[in-house]
Amino acid sequence: MNKIAKLFVTFFSAITLALVSFTSSFAKVEGEYIVLGSAISLTGKYSSNGVHTQNGYNMAVDRINKMGGVEVQGKKYKFEIIYYDDESNPKRAAQLAERLIKQDGVHYMLGPYSSGLTKAIAPVTEKYKIPMVEANGASRSLFTKGYKYLFAVLSPANQYLEVAIDLAVEKNGGKGVKIAQAFEQDAFSQDVRLGILDAAKRTGSEIIIDDKLPKELNDMAATLAKVKAVKPDVLVVSGHTKGALTAIRQISEMKVDVPMLAMTHCDAAKLSKQHGKKSEFALCASQWHKNLSYKDKFFGSGKKYAKDFQKEFGYDPPYQSAESSAALLVFKDAFERANSFDRDAVRDALVDTEMQTFYGNIKFGPGGQNVAKPMILFQVRCKGDDCENRVVAPTKWASDKFYHPIPKWSERS
Amino acid sequence: MDFLIFKAPMLMVQASLDGILLGILFALIAYGMALQWGVMNIINIAQGDLVILGGYIAYTIYLWGIHPAWGVIISPIIMFFVGWGLYKLVINKVVDRDLFISILATFGIAIVFQQLMNFIFGADVVVAQSEYGTTMLFDNSVTLPNSKIFSAFISVLYAIALVIYMRKSKLGRAIRATAQNARAAKILGVDTEKVYAATFGINAALCGIAGALISITLTLHPYVGLPYTVRSFMIVIVAGLGNLPAVAVSGMGLGLFEEFADYILGTEFRIGAVFLLLVLILVYRRFKLSKKREYLK
Question: What b/e string do you get for B128-143 counting C-beta neighbours within 10 Å, with b at 16 or more?
Fold first, then answer.
């Protein structure tokens, strides 16, 4: 037994050694390839969004490589990504980031999925001065730590639902409104909450219910009973996909009448598909929608991107995929402007980024967040049993008029 | 705002009914736990994950176009065999061992189940639609989803059926005998191995029913099993083993306590309040036991 055990140990250490020496032969730029690294959630609780992110990255890599790649000092390079599965676990993500940088010699990183995991990885990339362009960490706290190598193509979390409050105030004739809100107790949702608090202050609105939902909770009956009793003008809910699905289920079952319902994660939760007509009139914050009129030369327009994505992966791209694809466009642009593979030169080029992609305009603020792109709001609208997300704000891209107030349950068929 | 509930009496009615309906569902899960804890002396950490698996079975038939309420019949049948298989595969190796070993083993099972469900059903949160509508009371000021009433009704029905089965059937008597004294039961010709397997199967079947009910009242996700384990553990601790009426009362009590804690302490302390209550009860029990000196070794 002992001998066998020893044999095993030797065997495994040999393999590990072989793997280590093999992988470390990858460097930042290998032959004609620029190697990027990413720890991503392929298993665990974030695995569906992790896969959306990976598909977005892969789609952009293929497209850029096919259209001539990245030109640095007159030579054409192609992108390649090393992925590791972080199991949706922040500790594992930080380890893998370290491994990508130290063992695999990666000099440029792409972000993981979710604010929590990005928060775990950012200190590592910062320590080794590795530029990271991330597309799925929106928490405001990522952009207030003074990170110098972190760049996010998406709008920060506090902007998610601010627009909704402005809209409610506008509908109320410019007067402040009464807000009821329920937010999950996690970094992202609490940042969305901070945005609402700011908006309430700015517009003179009053917050009359401010519930914080425990992460384990999948029952909002108590919060909704309170909402029924105090009759607010707006109900705001943010608790990832679970929060969105629970809210719609219980609002429809308890017949809670509110003039306006604003949420996050409606598209990730496939709200219009899972709840159908019950989700009609819900207002949802989104980073991107295919109907927006942004353009670039790689993907054309949002609609074209959605079509190509559908063809390749067999489903409509959620915004998580679109923003992930945009991250690679940013990298390509930065490499070409830096005209070098020096990490600091690339980092400086990233700072000066100012471009339009199919996903939106991108320009980084001092904290690394994208300041050039507004959030959009869509509203679930149904024709018969067929429900769809229609953009209603900002007005520039609105395909439909914002329906307000939501009809009472007794008047809905 | 915190004491809104005292200003609006209808909220009190709403909270009580919500709490009781939810509590009955918890009591069903807790009864399964109490049963196999009593018989086999195993604390099943995977209890909540069995519930979620049961829910996914109901969700699967819903995807096939069958009404998810049929899940309360199909899901327990499948789950019984899952439980039986689990016993033969893992539990029978830890059943006579230290309580700690069985906690570790079932904790391992919980992790495996979570990952398997994630792998098979995906990490998305899902719901099954029962389209049962809503019952409105007191001029619409109190609303009760019919799906919750249905789930409480089914839970009570199954609980009664199980009590009768335990009293009247041969296997039921064998299970009760084994719970009282496994060695004596064995000497008198009870096949305790079979009894254990059946008990674990029945527990899994109860979880299956609860899961199917959860798929139409709440939401499903591969990683939300633990709160159900904790709640049923709590109910069993309060009620004691092998006492169904106490489990039912304690389940409803917990449901009520949670709802009222939500209104009075705030939603953020809802689950915290449950844990605090658990600690208080454990301390109280320990205090009582130390007076009796029963557990001094």
Answer: bbbebebeeeeeebbb
**Among A184, A211, A216, the residue to mutate for chain B (most B Cβ within 10 A):** A216
Among B26, B59, B83, B18, residue whose Cα is nearest residue B228: B26
B145:A217 CB<8 A: no
Asked if the Cβ–Cβ distance from A274 to B126 is below 8 Å, we say yes
Cα–Cα dist B206/B61, whole Å? 18
ipTM attached to this prediction: 0.83
Q: Which residues of B touch A255 (CB under 8 A)?
A: 134, 136, 140, 143
Torsion of CA B12, B14, B15, B21, to 10 degrees: 140
- For B138, the 3-state DSSP assignment is coil
Q: What share of chain A is helix, strand, coil (3-state, %, to 5)?
A: 45, 20, 35
What is the average pLDDT across B136-143? 80
What is the three-state SS of A297-325? CCCEEHHHHHHHHHHHHCCCCCHHHHHHH
What predicted TM-score, i.e. pTM, was given to this entire model?
Answer: 0.83
The stretch A223-235 carries a mean pLDDT of: 90
Cα(B224)–Cα(A173) distance, rounded to whole angstroms?
Answer: 43
DSSP string for residues in A203-241: HT-EEEEEEEE-TT----HHHHHHHHHH--SEEEEESHH
pLDDT at A135: 93
Q: Residue B147 pairs with which residues in a beta bridge? A: none
Please answer yes or no on whether A229 and B263 come within 8 Å at the CB atom.
no
Cβ contacts (< 8 Å) between A49 and chain B: which residues? Answer: 123
- Residue A254 contacts B, CB cutoff 8 Å: yes
CB A331 within 8 A of CB A36: yes
Chain B residues near any Cβ of chain A (below 8 Å): 1, 4, 8, 10-11, 14-15, 18, 22, 115, 118-119, 122-127, 129, 134, 136, 140-141, 143, 145, 147, 218-219, 221-224, 226-227, 259, 262-263, 266-268, 270-272
The Cα–Cα gap between A287 and A289 comes to 7
* Model pLDDT for residues B173-221, shown as the tens digit of each residue: 999 889 888 889 889 988 989 999 999 999 999 999 999 999 998 889 8
Helix (H, G, I), strand (E, B) or coil at B82: helix
- When mean pLDDT is compared across A33-47, A170-184, B7-21, the lowest value belongs to B7-21
Q: Record the tokens describing residue A2, joined without a space.
A: 């002992």
> How far does B152 lie from chain A, in Å, by closest CA?
16
**Domains contained in chain A, CATH given:** 22-155+292-363 (3.40.50.2300), 159-286+375-411 (3.40.50.2300)
Asked if residue A372 lies in contact with residue A359, where contact means CB atoms within 8 angstroms, the answer is no
- First and final CA of chain B: distance in angstroms? 51
Q: Which of B145, B219, B259 sits opposite A254 (nearest CB)?
A: B145
Identify the top-confidence range among A17-21, A275-279, B290-294.
Answer: A275-279
Whether A205 and A236 have beta carbons less than 8 Å apart is answered as no
